[in-house]
Amino acid sequence: MELAALGIFITVLLTCIVLGYSILYALLIGYCLFFIYGLAKKYPAMEILKMSWTGVKTVKNILITFVLIGMMTAAWRDCGTIPFVIYHSSKIVVPSVFILITFLLCCLISVLTGTGFGSAATLGVICMTLSNAIGINPVFTGGAVLSGVFFGDRCSPMSSSALLVSELTGTDIYVNVKNMMRTSLVPFIISCILYFILGINQKNANISNDIWNLFSYNFNLKIIVVLPALLIIVLCALRIKVRYAMIASILAASAISIVVQTTTFPELLKLLLTGFQSNDQQLAVMMNGGGIVSMLRVMAIICISSCYAGIFEGTGLLNGVKSGIIWLSGKITAYGSLLVASVLTNIIACNQTLSIMLTHYLCKETTKNKEQLALDLENTVVVIAPLVPWSIACVVPLTAAGAPINSIFTAFYLILLPLWNFFVNAHNRT
Question: Where does residue 238 rank: exposed (0-12), middle (13-18), buried (19+ CB within 10 A)?
Fold first, then answer.
């Protein structure tokens, strides 16, 4: 019965992907399916609902953080923080190192914002636009964008995936970030070298000033507009709770929007809810977004996915698979079995959130050290999701940036990180 339930769920997921329907439909159908499975196993409906609520409770803090992320990304757009970073960073573009610079800038923006999607929809668009103007292979630039935006999506203290892993494992996010930085150093350096090699043969070209003029015309780019970003960096460095740091950043950005960018208070409240909206078509393509509304879909996915986790644990639906993973951990290390599980869950789930929850459920007994478990999840399932062509984590950022799907083959950082850590873990075992 377990295999039948999982098989139907996978079929529904694949059908939605092929037909282009929202993944939410598949998740809702899946929830109904697993609810029926619980009833078939003689669990009362109220008990299954309690299992679902138990799963949701594990991510309640994440949902609050999502609201703050939506508000902050809108406020940063309007007050000029993101335009300032893009405007000044884009001026250092040199064709021969453009791909490397794209990777590094996307890393920077994604760490500051904590969102891979948002980074791809802002700086990613800029980089792909410049890449096309210069004549650089879009597959190379697209891979650099994908790697860069998920660099911060993995290790930023504001990242939803990092916060989710922290909540699931009961670990301190700042300790997790420190561990993630340590284990990603070698893959990061190798990725930089590879992107430099890809770029050294690119032809020189003159870059238009149109994009720079677009930002300088629409925003007051005084140095004070970087204050919201600096607040996040400083407060996080002081280990202030992420939510408090974000609230401080939102307040600072809101004040700057009103005083520096002359946004009215009613306009500010509206954009915090619905996101930044520009009347300039060219700017709108690059900058529109953010706001609480932009996070509702992700929040819905989080809620439904967490219900799955509660039902799976309460009914033991995945116990057979879980036993196989535990057995495998004794053969190829706990990290190796987690890597295998993360590949399978990403192929099945099609979204990063559910993949993280499923992998955690399957592998949490293979590693006693909760910090190590959190690190292993960050080094596998989180970065493998954007390498699956039908995953939301892959399709959304590449589509937003205007990059081809085969850019996944040049997303070196995402490929090297899990492989490098597998090698390190295997070596340490011997």
Answer: exposed
